[in-house]
Amino acid sequence: MPEPANTTPSQQPKKKRRKLDIWNKIAVCVLTLFLVGCISVFFILVNIINDPEGMRFSQDGLSTLSNSRIFDASGNLVYEFGDEIREDITYEKIPQSVVDAFLSIEDSRYFDHNGFDLPRFMAAAIANLRSGNFSQGGSTLTMQMIDNAFTKNQEAKLENEGKLNKFAQIKLKIQEIYLSLIAEQSINKEDIFEFYVNRIWFGSGNNTRGIQKASQYYFGKDVSQLNLGEAAFLAGAINAPYNNNPINNVNGPAEIDFLKQATERRNLTLKLMLQHGYITEEEYELAKNTRLEFALKSSEIVSEDPNEAYITQTIEECQTLTGQDPSIIPMDIYTALNADVQKQADEICNGNIVSFPNEAFDIGFGIVDNTNGEIIAVAPGRRYHSDETKIDNSTDRYSPGSTMKPLLAYAPTFDILGWATSHTVNDTPKDYFTTGSNLQNSDRTYQGRMSLTDAVGVSKNTTAAAAMIDLVKATGYDYWKEYCQKLGYDEDVYSQFVEQYCIGGADMQASPIQQASAYSIFANKGQRINSHRIRKVVRRADSVEIGANTQANELISEQAAFMMSTILEKVVTGNYNNYNQYLKSDYPVYAKSGTSDWSTDGLQYGIPLGVIKDEWSVGYTSQYTIAVWSGYTRPYQQQGYYIDIAQLNMATAFHISKYMLDYCQQYGNYQAIPKPDLVSDYRGGYIKSEYLERGDANSSHESTYDEKTACQAQGGTWDSEDGICITYKEENTNETACTSSGGSWDGGACSCPEGYVLNGNACQVVEEEKPEEPEEPEETDPIQECISNGGTYWNGVCSYDQTTPPDQGGNTGGDGSDNSGQLGGDTNTPAPDQTTRKRIHLSFFKRFLNSKARDSILLLFCAKKKRGPHRSRSF
Q1: pLDDT tens digits, 770-787
Q2: What is the DSSP string of 463-522?
Q3: pLDDT, tens digit, for every residue of 473-532?
Q4: What are phi and psi of 674, to 5 degrees?
């Protein structure tokens, strides 16, 4: 039997190592990624929290008593934030119904969380993921306090800078959460609520903030006197203060029913108060069924500060520039305001310098320094100081009409198409914009070939359209969208660019300040410096200085700017009778006019088709540009107001431009815009030197316009013998009369819209017949009547010679004798009878006695009339 083999420890079989299965590997990877993610998130959060620009929380910042201040261009204090902006109230003075209303609709768990409500936040996050946006914030009341004080303005700043994106929004939300947690550790709940309601905007006017000002604005009472429905309205209004302001129904857009929205928001707040047990069913029904409009007791707030509109615009610009609210964060704001020029602008609005056609007629303008983009003065309109809902015509947008032609259709042609200022254009009928009908000029005529200067001078639409189409073909649409953006127009305008913009058509809208800023390129070598009011802002807490937004954009060359200015100078001095001649001065001035007209949308207000809606005057010197809008604001348009020929001929906007440019001369060095290098003389005009060798084939040293060419362009026949143009307009006069008055022409008959009647071949507004008022007898002068009848008037009484009684109707005592000439007066004028003499006395007393005494005297005379004949007496 064999012996077992000897085995040594070294010869024993090795144990196999246990290998990690796939699940373990996955777990390790996940854990590693989680740890790396946590570390990364930690450092990202630290970076975000430690870099909230201007957003560091400070308890002192919430309760500071220092105010922001605004200074003019000379360094003078023109405004300091105070009680007129905000009137703080303590938590103890806030009614419980107000607290309950805010908690119901804003943060029902306010007194339970630590500043961040995770369940609510997660619910909002899920809703955002489903909708694909960040409309649901899940913010607590504390977070809203931080949002109003810091985040909201910071977001507006990033948006203005083009830096706002999803990551930036997430970053701001993280900062907001962090600062809310810190705030809850530093301040008690009551103080946070107090700060919140004292700082937010409720839609009230004059930049006022806080619930106390809102209570006075809407209901004319102290916040401690608010009832349940009023408290619910204020709490519900803050999510969209402007849209939830029922007073905006007076002057706001007609398509928005502000009262309806405000009522619905109030009722939603009441419903939530009922759900949370703050009110009973009976209280809910009573408050819900109360008419909100009956509770409103808003009183007109009249301001006499000529700087009011400029200050309001400065506050808004400061919020965008700094990302902070100057009504909350104390700061010193230094502006370009010229208080002297602003005072003149205010005087114009008050009707003390320029005449207006009527009380409804309104204006708005802005003045910009061409060299640096500073807005030195604004005119918001004639009713800005008293309107409950402020309408600022210097910033509101209107159709700019033909003022767009130099900016879009003409000035760029010198750079892009190589035109000379002596270029000739063809004013001919054509469907330039493919609308189905030929483009018309304002005078409804076509004049054939004419010089570019003449086309600008008489403001031809056809030539501008043809030039714009050629420019778009040469560059593409994206070029002009960017071009309009650089001109300073809003995104909803420049993003929708079409060729019609060149005549102010389609969706082209601009404010007077925007238009003044755009025109500054002609006096500033083709560059536009961003229009601004603020020169710098200094935070009072830490002396951090924030500079102005002075970004410069080059739109056209210096040569093109000069060439366009030479044409616009001729627009003023060229005897075109286009109202720009009113700007002619002993200094070089350049200008362009513009109008827009009513289309069919004015018919609902009784406004005839095609009448003038807006009138513009844009004028500039080497130093300043002014753009003036004139016309009617929406409330008056809805009453049927429009600019008729008589109002147009008053040229109100042009007289304003003239006055203000004259006045501003003391602050600017007016001189002719100098001819730059690389501009060459060419056929009586100018051309950029780079195009000199090629030349401008359509250029002429003389205008090729003549009456024969103009006649042929209109489709007429020129009669050389008589020197007249024979056209066939007569055949269409009936149709023209019909359509121009708002009617529809069909088969030789005119149909008028509702509210109009046919008068011949034109539509006429139906006027309600007014009952004839009885004519009031003319009041006679007692003194003159007395003397004319031969009496003597003294001490308020007319006396006659008693020895020879006055004629009582042609005969004396019935003796048949002739008494002519016995009274020492007009022999053909009979003396007054007793009743006439009583009328003389009564007339005197009516003039000189108060109503109570007069009534007594009348009774006395009536009594005497019953007793016997009247005798003259001295009083």
Answers
A1: 444 445 444 555 556 666
A2: HHHHHHHHHHHHH-HHHHHHHHHHHT--HHHHTT--GGGGGT-TT--B-HHHHHHHHGGG
A3: 999 999 999 999 999 999 999 999 999 999 999 999 999 999 999 999 999 999 999 999
A4: -70, 150
Please list the rounded mean pLDDT of every run of 10 residues in the chain (875 residues): 51 54 76 75 60 49 68 94 77 94 90 82 70 64 81 72 76 80 85 88 77 90 93 92 84 76 94 94 94 80 84 93 84 97 96 94 98 97 78 95 98 97 95 93 89 95 97 96 97 96 96 98 97 95 89 96 98 92 96 94 92 97 98 92 94 97 96 96 95 86 55 63 54 54 64 68 56 49 61 54 40 36 35 40 39 39 38 31
Count, in order, helices (H) and strands (E) of the chain. Answer: 31, 24
Closest CA to 604 of 636, 635, 631, 638: 638
Let me know the angle formed at the C-alpha of 135 by 132 and 136, rounded to the nearest 5 degrees. Answer: 105
Tokens (6 digits) for 544: 């951090």
Listed in sequence order, the residues at least 6 apart from 55 whose beta carbon sits closer than 8 Å to its beta carbon are: 150, 151, 154, 175, 179
User: For position 730, what pLDDT does the model report?
Assistant: 36
Q: What is the pLDDT of residue 681?
A: 95
Backbone angles phi, psi at 247, to 5 degrees: -70, -20
CA distance 365 to 250: 23
Tokens of 332: 């010193």
Distances (CA, A) of 86 to 67, 137, 205, 213: 11, 27, 12, 7
Q: How far apart are CA 320 and CA 326, in angstroms?
A: 11
- Burial category of 35 from C-beta neighbours within 10 Å (exposed 0-12, middle 13-18, buried 19 and up): exposed
The whole-number pLDDT of residue 602 equals: 92
What distance lies between CA 112 and its chain's CA centroid? 45
748-762: string of b/e by CB count within 10 Å (b at 16+)?
A: eebebeeebeeeebb
What contacts 373, CB < 8 A, 6 or more positions away? 517, 520, 528, 529, 530, 531, 532, 550
**What pLDDT was estimated at residue 747?**
59
Torsional sign, CA 190, 196, 202, 206: positive
Specify the pLDDT at position 511.
97
362 - beta bridge partners?
Answer: 631
pLDDT the model gives residue 181:
84
Amino acid 169: pLDDT: 78
pLDDT at 706: 55
Paired sense of beta strands 717-719 and 724-726, if any: antiparallel
- Largest pairwise CA distance in the chain: 197
- For 355, 453, 547, the CA distances from 709, given in Å and listed in that order, are 41, 17, 57
Distance CA 157, CA 177 (A): 20
Contacts by 708-712, CB closer than 8 A, 24 or more apart = 709/447, 709/448, 709/449, 710/427, 710/445, 710/446, 710/447, 710/448, 712/448
User: In whole angstroms, what is the distance from residue 538 CA to residue 536 CA?
Assistant: 7
- Residues near 34 by beta carbon (within 8 Å), at least 6 away in sequence: none
What pTM value is reported for the model? Answer: 0.70
CA dist 202 and 212 (Å) reads 10
Provide the β-strand partners of residue 751: 744
| Secondary structure element (H or E) that encloses residue 690, with its range | none
Helix boundaries (H) for 642-705: 645-650, 652-664
Are 635 and 765 a contacting pair, CB within 8 Å? no
- The Cβ of residue 690 has, within 10 Å, a number of other Cβ atoms equal to 13
Question: Is there a contact between 610 and 603 (Cβ–Cβ < 8 Å)?
Answer: no
- Judge contact between 234 and 205, C-beta under 8 A: no
Report yes or no: 560 and 77 within 8 Å, Cβ to Cβ: no
Distance (Å, whole) CA 564 – CA 562: 5
